[in-house]
Amino acid sequence: RENWGGAECWMYQYEIHNAAVKHIVPRDQLLIYKVGEGWDRLCAFLGHPVPENVPFPKENVGGGTPGNIMDKIQQFKVMDKIQDELKMSFAKILLTGGLFLAAAVGGGVWAFRR
User: Fold this and answer.
1) Whether this model's pTM surpasses 0.70
2) Alpha carbon distance 42, 56 (integer Å)
3) DSSP of 65-85
4) Distance CA 27, CA 23 (A)
5) In the structure, what pLDDT confidence band is assigned to residue 67 with cuts at 50, 70 and 90?
6) Are 13 and 21 in contact (CB under 8 A)?
7) Rounded CA gap, 50 and 44, in Å?
8) CA distance 33 to 36
């Protein structure tokens, strides 16, 4: 994979995370829910009554609404922080692997010359 910070990487990580959660969390304690489903399944799962005369929130609606989720992501620059963390993690992995490789080659050369 050429672009570890790109959309393909994020989708892969998302799928791996979801698979791990589904494997670890008992079925009776996990609700796989799409926000568009509204209150009914969510409230039933949580054991709470469905709110009366309260529309289901639509926080993840882009554009036009000040304070929507996209504004918050941009405000806190979450994606930049995540990409920085990914880059640092990969750099640490590469550095560690390089050190082990150098030690192995150096040890082999040292043993060969003895």
Assistant:
1) no
2) 11
3) STT-HHHHHHHHTHHHHHHHH
4) 9
5) low
6) no
7) 8
8) 9
